[in-house]
Amino acid sequence: MKRQRESERDINDIDRLSDLPDFVLLHIMEFMDIKDVVQTCILSKRWKNLWKSMTNLTLHCLDDGRTYTRVSPLEDTDQTCILSFSKFVSRILSDRDGSLHLQHLDFAHRDTPEITLLEVMEYAASHNVQQFRFPVEFYPPHTFELPLSILCCRSLTFLKLDFWIFSSANNKRLSNHGSMKTQHPCFSRLKSVKVERGPLPMALDDKGISTVKYLLQNSPLAKVDIITCFVVDMLALEGFVVDMLALEGFVVTHQSSHELQVCFDIL
Amino acid sequence: MAKTPEPKRTISLKPCDGDVIEVSPMIAKQMQTIQSFIEDDSFIATTTIIPLPNVTAFQLSKIIDYLNYHSNSKAVADNVKESTKKFDEEFLKELEHDKLKELLHAANYLNVKEVLDFLCQAVADLIQDKSVKFVRKFFGVVNDYSVEEEEDIRRTHAWAFEGVEED
């Protein structure tokens, strides 16, 4: 990388150390808080755009652990923090070098404005994300529908969705996706599904089972491991995994890069 | 110093400033750069000494120490976390900043992921919450922005500098 440091050439101990290759510097950034990462642009001209080449992004709001404290309304200060974080995320995505694919995106958040969620998902899908972790929480409960772009994303090999989404009667959109799904099989690269218990004791009903079967038939899944599956208020969802994910609070967690855990999780 | 010609299973590595160091194939395997040497047709385990002109004996032995410890500790389940943490802390404690960065170079050159990850994490921890001045010094970065340019960067990136005090 070209650097301009004409007059400083003779200063000792500079060259070798700042000659750490971009690859290594970017790797260090992957272990840093994203805000600190962006701030490295101030270091020198070499660093100005360096962070924009990151292919593994971890975007976490409220890193003090409150992200996952569930079913509690947020303090006002948290609200402010969340809104500014959403803006921050938008800036990251728009400033990042869009010509580079994303390998790994980890986006943990709660009460994110839906527009930001969609923006992140669309960005991930359009940048061929391979590994995508997306634990998001809402309070008060409401639904969020996964965009087709993510469900049909062919680059995806690893997905962790941790939506605490709540049952909804809104099934209007179900029929809309029926035909699209046959053209774009969901999760086409995922290798296995694991269905696990959610927090409330409910029995897996026939529809839940058939949904899992559908998932099996339509993805190159190597195995299904049904432990317990709790489903509330299953809509007429046979064959419509997409919509069940969106409307039923389907928690998908991973085990390894080719394994997908699916939890039906309703509060 | 070449070892005796008796059949051996170890891989011979020659750092730039010291004697040949023998490592087990299991350790050598974790260094991608060495691994590609080994896979080369001309490589003969018994006689070939792999030259490492970019790695000092100190760096090589540190890396080997780390790999040795971590591959052994995987085998023992009890109290691994605690002792591993201790090992890692001790490992870093012995490294001054410059040594740490040089080791990073070496780990990168040898392409040994486990050590590279570990060192990158260590650097990230080290520069966390530090001033721009500290980070520049750490990386040996010379600020080649003019005062105006730096102000401009701060202004255009104000979204990332909220709540950050200038030096």
UniProtKB/TrEMBL annotation, chain A:
UniProt cross-references to CDD domains, sorted A to Z: F-box_AtFBL13-like
InterPro entries (alphabetical): F-box-like_dom_sf, F-box_AtFBL13-like, F-box_dom
All copies of domain F-box, residue ranges: 14-71
One Pfam family per UniProt: F-box
Transmembrane segments: none
Family annotation (PANTHER family): CYCLIN-LIKE F-BOX, F-BOX_RNI_FBD-LIKE DOMAIN PROTEIN
Name of the protein in question: F-box domain-containing protein
Species this chain originates from: Lupinus luteus (European yellow lupine)
Automatic annotation (TrEMBL), chain B:
Domain SKP1 component dimerisation, chain residue ranges per copy: 114-160
Superkingdom field: Eukaryota
Annotated SKP1 component POZ domain residues: 10-72
Keyword Ribosomal protein included in the entry's annotation: no
Keyword ATP-binding: no
A biological process from GO: protein ubiquitination
Keyword terms of this UniProt record: Ubl conjugation pathway
Pfam family for this entry, one: Skp1
SUPFAM superfamilies in the record: POZ domain (SSF54695), Skp1 dimerisation domain-like (SSF81382)
InterPro entries found in the cross-reference section: SKP1 (IPR016897), SKP1-like (IPR001232), SKP1-like_dim_sf (IPR036296), SKP1/BTB/POZ_sf (IPR011333), Skp1_comp_dimer (IPR016072), Skp1_comp_POZ (IPR016073)
Pathway connected to this protein: Protein modification; protein ubiquitination
Protein family: Belongs to the SKP1 family.
Function: Involved in ubiquitination and subsequent proteasomal degradation of target proteins. Together with CUL1, RBX1 and a F-box protein, it forms a SCF E3 ubiquitin ligase complex. The functional specificity of this complex depends on the type of F-box protein. In the SCF complex, it serves as an adapter that links the F-box protein to CUL1.
Subunit structure: Part of a SCF (SKP1-cullin-F-box) protein ligase complex.
Protein name (record): SKP1-like protein
Organism of this sequence: Lupinus luteus
Source species taxonomy: Eukaryota, Viridiplantae, Streptophyta, Embryophyta, Tracheophyta
